[in-house]
Each structure stands twice: as structure tokens, then as C-alpha cells.
TrEMBL record:
Residues 67-173 form the Sporulation stage II protein D amidase enhancer LytB N-terminal domain. The chain crosses the membrane at residues 6-26. GO terms for cellular component: outer membrane-bounded periplasmic space. This is Stage II sporulation protein D. Pfam families: SpoIID (PF08486). Keywords: Membrane, Transmembrane, Transmembrane helix. It comes from Thermoanaerobacter italicus (strain DSM 9252 / Ab9). It comes from the Bacteria. One of its GO terms (biological process) is sporulation resulting in formation of a cellular spore.
Length: 349
């Protein structure tokens, strides 16, 4: 009974709470050198049972192609190629690309399994959509030809290899599929899940993530006038009282997570969440600091994304050190195992 209640809670968390958090936390501004997305929501958390797979051909994914407004059935491994290509720069190390392939596969299979054809709540009949703000980014071969130009052959072969080398592999914890959350740049340390999403998920633990500094967006700044700063905050909280003369001294009670991201802070007479500030000023993460320069406020931001799970730049740094994809995945997802889907099925029965 206790188990059932936990399961119901996890499903509620996954279907209702997690998607809204993830969409809220998403930052649409990207460049080609930055991984395309910061997270993958998944349905069912660590209690995604695979029993339903017996009645379904899980090798075929019903994908709602958002920019074409239609559902297309795509072979699972072909689909994973399009996700890796959309979610991670093709210049990354092969072992990092392989790690991304396993997260992409785990994500879509959980959607297929839990919701059986209703995986994307926005698009009935689809397991997943290609809207990176809702499900998981994906690009067709034609789109990749345009994106990569003369490098197409080289990159396509590389991504195909990363997917083939990890064929059928998924991430499991306690014999169930996991929520393979990830992001571009943690800022040096990843987050504990409960600091971002309230729910303590055993395999989403904070770990140090060195080597990310090479990313062009590791550190970014946002500059605005003091008036603009106050106006934007007031748009969100009209009853804010903030004196223009000494703004920095009116920012206090900053509470940070273990990884250094801001949970809450007080500005003037109002308390804001770190995510609220991130949204108001369109910041890359909630790891930020304020400075005053003349009539301007400068916000310095470290990292890109929510910081939970695998850091894509961190994964690439580990790969450069010679770490293999399974070592990278086990580093960022505490206590997980990497197994073939068919072996997972055997465990369940
Ligand atoms: Zn969707």
C-alpha cells in the first residue's frame, strides 16, 4: 500500500509538477555551440515498470513533428539519432554523445511505457513531440543537412556510431527506468533534485562537475539600468518597494543551494525565488550575483540550465579525460545501472 501511494505520488509529480517546472525553467536563447536543451522530463520516475512493453512494439516511436504538425512513426534507434544531433553539439567527444544517446533512449521509452501512446500530453496519439520546451528536441536528416552543411557526412556518421554503440541501452535504478534530467552547464557542481524540484530522487544527487569553464556560456552577464531593474521586478510584484539610491544594500537574505544556485532572496520588501528572478531577467541559470556599476545593475550568471543530472559540458570534459560513456552516466546519475531493454524485461517477469 505504501508502495502504491509512493507510485501515485511519483506519477503525479512526473505528469503534473515536473513538466511545469521544466517548462518554467527553460531558456529559449541558444547558440549552435551550446547544447540545445537543458532537461528531459520523463513520466514515472524510478517506478517506471516495463511490463506494458510486452504488448507494444517499443522499437517504433510515434513522434509528433511539431514544425510539420503531424505524427510520424520512427524507428527507436533512428529517433535517438535525431535527438542526440539536436541536443548536443556534434563536435563533442564520442563518449559524451554516447551518454546523450542513452539518456535520450531512456526518456522516450519511459514515455512510451507509462502512457502507452499518450506520452505527449499536448499531442494525443504521440509518444513524444519534437518541441524541446515540452518533450525532447529532435531533428530530421534534412534539417541536419541544413544545420551542418559540408560537415553533414562527418557528423552524421559520428552520431550514428554513438547511437549504434549504445543500441538498446537504458538507465535503470532499482530495475526501473529513471528520469534522465540533464542540462548544459552546471557551473561546477550539479544540484540535488530536491533543491530544484522539491522531490528527493535518489539518483539525482549533487556531484562536482569540473572542466565546464571552456563553454562560451559558462559565465554570462546581463546589464540594465537601475530603473529597468526596478520596473521589471515591479511588473512581477507590483507592491515591491525598492529605493533607487542603494539597490545592492536592499538585496539580502540570499539562500543558496549546495551547488550555489539561489533558492530565495529578498529584494526591497519582497521575497523572490531564484527561478522567478531567472525568468524576469531571462538568465541562463539561478546561480547569479548582482553588482552596481554607475547607473547600471550588472547580473553575473554562472552555468546554463537547472543543474540537475548530467551536465553536457561536464560529460564532454570527462570524455576528454578518457572516461567512457557508462562511467560518465554513472558519475552523474548516482547508483544507476546501464542495461539492455530486453534484459530489463526479463527482470520484470
Ligand atoms: Zn510533447
Amino acid at each position: 500500500m505504501k508502495y502504491a501511494i509512493y507510485g501515485v505520488f511519483l506519477i503525479f509529480f512526473s505528469l503534473i509538477i515536473l513538466p511545469s517546472i521544466i517548462v518554467f525553467g527553460f531558456n529559449p536563447h541558444r547558440t549552435s555551440s551550446t547544447p540545445e536543451n537543458e532537461v528531459k522530463l520523463i513520466d514515472g520516475g524510478n517506478l517506471v515498470k516495463v511490463d506494458n512493453l510486452n504488448n507494444k512494439d517499443y522499437h517504433t516511436v510515434s513522434v509528433f513533428i511539431t514544425n510539420q504538425n503531424k505524427i510520424q512513426k520512427i524507428d527507436l534507434e533512428e529517433y535517438v539519432k535525431g535527438v542526440v544531433a539536436a541536443e548536443m553539439p556534434a563536435e563533442f567527444e564520442i563518449e559524451a554523445l554516447k551518454a546523450q544517446a542513452v539518456t535520450a533512449r531512456t526518456y522516450v521509452l519511459s514515455k512510451e511505457i507509462v502512457l502507452g501512446g499518450k506520452g505527449c500530453q499536448l499531442h494525443p496519439g504521440a509518444d513524444v513531440c519534437t518541441d524541446s520546451e515540452h518533450c525532447q528536441a529532435w531533428q530530421s536528416e534534412e534539417e541536419l543537412r541544413q544545420k551542418w552543411g559540408e560537415n553533414f557526412d562527418k557528423y552524421y556518421v559520428k552520431i550514428s556510431q554513438a547511437v549504434a554503440d549504445t543500441e538498446e541501452l537504458v538507465l535503470v535504478y532499482n530495475d526501473a527506468l529513471i528520469v534522465p534530467a540533464y542540462h548544459a552547464i552546471s557551473g561546477g557542481k550539479t544540484e540535488n533534485s530536491e533543491d530544484v524540484w522539491q522531490s528527493k530522487i535518489p539518483y539525482l544527487r549533487s556531484v562536482v562537475s569540473p572542466g565546464e569553464e571552456v563553454a562560451s556560456k559558462y559565465k554570462t552577464t546581463v546589464v540594465m539600468s537601475k530603473e529597468e531593474f526596478i520596473n521589471k521586478l515591479k511588473q512581477k510584484k507590483p507592491s515591491l518597494k525598492l529605493d533607487n539610491s542603494d539597490i545592492l544594500n536592499q538585496i539580502k537574505d540570499i539562500e543558496r543551494t549546495q551547488a550555489g544556485h539561489i533558492k530565495t532572496l529578498k529584494i526591497g520588501n519582497m521575497t523572490f525565488g531564484g527561478e522567478e528572478i531567472r525568468e524576469i531577467f531571462d538568465l541562463n541559470s539561478t546561480n547569479f550575483n548582482f553588482e552596481a556599476q554607475g547607473n547600471n545593475i550588472v547580473i553575473t550568471v554562472i552555468g546554463y540550465g537547472h543543474g540537475v543530472g548530467m551536465s553536457q559540458y561536464g560529460a564532454n570534459a570527462l570524455a576528454k579525460q578518457g572516461k567512457k560513456f557508462d562511467e560518465i552516466l554513472r558519475y552523474y546519475y548516482t547508483g544507476v545501472e546501464i542495461v539492455k531493454i530486453e534484459d530489463l524485461l526479463k527482470i520484470q517477469h
